[in-house]
Each structure stands twice: as structure tokens, then as C-alpha cells.
Amino acid sequence: LKTTAIFFGVALAMGARQAMAETGGPCATNERFALVLHGGTREEREEDRGRTAFVRQVLTEGAAELRAGAPSLDVVERTVKKLEDSALFNAGRGSNANAGGFAEVDAGIADGATRRIGSVASMRGIKNAVAAARLVMEKSPHVFMVGDRGEAYVKSLGAEAVPPAYFIKNKQVNPNDPPHGTVGAVALDRCGHISAATSTGGFGAKIPGRVGDSPVFGAGFYADDQVGFSSTGKGEDFIRYTVPRDVAARIRYRGDSLRKAADSVIVDELGAKGIEAGLIGLDLSGQVLMTWSAAGMTRGYVTDKQDPQAFIFEGSRGDAR
Ligand code: ASP
Predict the structure, then answer these.
(1) Is 182 labeled as catalytic in the residue annotation?
(2) Cα within 13 Å of Cα(151), Cβ side
(3) Which pTM was predicted?
């Protein structure tokens, strides 16, 4: 009788834990967790300007959240918000100005376990595009809102509004600015759920109204029940080649490893065509991937077994476990 009681006690506790996880409570099913992020590719060597230290700091905070059982969706949103607020990248506050002299930001977020997604594009007065994308995902019947009318709608859902002066590069239209600096994050939580998010100001001096890959599911971000990705590079090419979707399909249908699938798309196929591309991702086993075909990529990762690592030019193109 005692054994049966203990058995039911344990089963009940496990059930409660599972239920909490599903309602946004702590995840503690597995020890394993991982978080990987990027801050865009770099064509030419340039100064760090505090980026790697900042990336390590953000990873340390994200790891503490994941270790305590935070859902991957919350962690990728919070991580991308910090990158947006830092003004160190071409996203949120540091977004490039378009050819009209103002920032138009795009973002997307995906919850791989449920296949819920949300995106926003061409937003002019939203502080955190990634948070607006999550509002679209959770509070609207749609998945993608764009332009002024979309912006008015996401504000009505609670997205934080900011005046044009918030975007520090507004009016500074410089086509020679280093073009990249899109940000993204992918996380695996202790429930075994993967989420991904990407946010950008898009290319500097882009034509007003232009939308790149970052808010397009399957091009700028992707997550399912096995893998998750965030992209950076020329958005037009990522949309044409549906890059992360292609990598995910090679893994799912052909049984390729994460590394092989990503390298064959990013390095062998796109790199050979002269298309500069970067991709970060991870899978359910906690394998982390960072690959790119430019000179460098601001990037970093942390797992339950490895302390935060951050790089721009140094370090391998390789994966980590
Ligand atoms: N993919 C982004 C865009 O085309 C730019 C980037 O990743 O740097 O808008």
C-alpha cells in the first residue's frame, strides 16, 4: 500500500509539473537546456564595441532563467528585447534608418512545441518589435500584422509605443553603415520545447515599405518540435531560398545532422553563389549550431554543461554541445 501511495504521489507531482509547464510555470522535466543568439554577420573586421561582453551577460541571464525552469518562449523574447534595447545592433533602438530617414522594424517569434507564431513588419513607433510579435501570436486571431494599421492594432493589444526620436539612427541615412546587425535567439527549455525569435531594422537605406526575411516564418526564423533557427543576411535571398525551412526539412526527411544540413545550405549552396548568410540554431538533444558565410558573425551560446561563450570573428564556425 505504501509503495502504491509513493507511486501515486510521484505521478501526481510529475503531472503537476507538466501542467505548470503547459501553463507557463517552471519546466523541470530535463536537466538539458540551451540558448544561442546572434547579432548579425560582419563583412569586414571591425571593433567589438562591447558587443561580446554584452552577449555573454545576456547569455548568463538567459541561462539562469532556463535553469530555473523558464519556458523557451519567454527566454527568447526577453533575450531579443535586451538586444533591441542595447542600441548595439540593428534592431530596436539601434535600428538603421531607411531611405526616408526613419526606422521601420520587423520581428517574428515562434513557439515550436505548439507551432504558434507571430510577426510584425514596417513598424515605426514600437519599442520592442519582438514583444509586438508575441502579442500578435497570443492575442490576435492572425499571425502577421504590417504597416501603420498593423501598428495601431498591436498598440491596442498593449505594445509599448515610442516617439521617432527613440531610434538613434533616425535621419542618419548612410548606405555605407555596416549593413548588418539583425538579432535573434533560439532556446531549448527543460520541458524539451524549442522557441525562436528574430528582430531587425532591416538594411540601411532600404526603400520604405521593404520587408526582409526576419519576420517571415521559414525564412528569418523557424521552430518546430525538433529544431529551431534564426537567420541573418540578405533577406531577399533568405525568402527566395526559405533557408531555415530547408535546413529543417533536410533534418526531418533525410535524417541529416544539424551541422551537415546547415553547412550544405549556408556554406556549400548559398556561399558558393556568393550569398552572405548566417544561421544559428539548436535541436532537442541540446546541440547548438552557428554557421555563416561572411567574415564573421556576432554570436554566442550557453548550455546546461557549458558556460557562456561569445565571439564575432574568432572561434570556429562549428557547433557545440
Ligand atoms: N535579414 C535582414 C534583412 O534582410 C538583415 C540582416 O540580417 O542583417 O532585413
Answers:
(1) yes
(2) 17
(3) 0.91
